[in-house]
Design a protein that fits this description.
The chain is mostly beta strands and 201 residues long. It has helices at residues 3-11, 63-66, 96-102, 180-183; strands spanning 26-27, 48-54, 57-62, 72-79, 84-95, 109-114, 119-123, 133-138, 141-142, 152-154, 167-173. It has 4 helices and 11 strands; from the N terminus they run H-E-E-E-H-E-E-H-E-E-E-E-E-E-H. A hairpin with a 4-residue loop joins strand 4 (72-79) and strand 5 (84-95). The protein binds the ligand Nc1nc2c(c(=O)[nH]1)N[C@H]1C(S)=C(S)[C@@H](COP(=O)(O)O)O[C@H]1N2 and molybdenum atom (MO). Residues 34, 80-82, 160-161 line the site of molybdenum atom.
């Protein structure tokens, strides 16, 4: 085998089921870092996660308290609006069902907010029913700061910009407020399978 062919077969899987790729996406083995600003580094003793606007009022967990909640480890595909998809990514995460149930969430819209000022909006129904998580580890290792550590949202059924890195909380609202990228013309919902990249798609 020449080094060129070794490189080729080393970098690309010989076969990826095309049915796993949403329209217009290509797959990559890399894990690109996409951040609209510097990586925040909040000391873990100052870090907390808050859900506000639920019937239970404002509920806040320290990092230590979060550590007492049940986690799940599972493998999913992720899809970035810039057209890369990464298949079979393995995460350890707390189901948002657990956090939203504790907060008695019942309003229809959610804005996630992050250290550094990033926000994104998601309908509440997309965050419940075992489809969305607060991810704490990737591939068995604590989440790296560049990828959103200590904790990020993980909503694999929507484009990856909805998976807010460095997330610090969820605000439950009765009105839908566009988040950071949504305000710059990205699609309000962002379903990769319907190729909802930009407003109007
Ligand atoms: N706080 C924050 N979260 C963010 C972003 C960001 O810029 N800031 N970028 C989003 C986008 S566009 C993508 S594709 C993914 C990238 O995650 P990664 O850097 O771990 O690949 O994070 C999303 N979450
Ligand atoms: Mo993205």
């Amino acid at each position: 085998m020449t080094s060129a062919s070794r490189g080729f077969f080393g970098r690309r899987r010989p076969s990826v089921d095309p049915a796993r790729l949403p329209p217009g996406q290509y797959w990559t083995d890399d894990f690109p870092v996409l951040s609209a600003g510097p990586t925040p580094r909040t000391p873990i003793e100052d870090w907390s996660f808050t859900v506000r606007g639920g019937a239970a009022g404002t509920v806040t967990w320290t990092w230590e308290e979060l550590g007492t909640l049940p986690t799940e480890t599972f493998t999913v595909d992720i899809h970035c609006v810039t057209k890369w998809s990464k298949l079979d990514t393995t995460w350890t995460a707390i189901s948002l069902d657990v956090l939203l149930e504790r907060a008695a969430a019942e309003d229809a819209f959610v804005t996630a907010w992050s250290d550094g000022g990033y926000t994104t909006n998601v309908p509440l129904e997309d965050l419940i029913g075992g489809r969305a998580w607060l991810a704490l580890a990737y591939d068995g290792e604590p989440l790296e700061p560049e990828h959103g550590g200590p904790a990020r949202l993980l909503i694999p059924h929507l484009y990856f910009w909805k998976s807010a890195k460095w997330v610090r909380g969820l605000e439950l609202r009765t009105d839908d407020e566009p988040g950071f990228w949504e305000g710059y013309g990205y699609h309000n919902y962002g379903d990769p399978w319907r190729e909802q990249r930009y407003a109007g798609d």
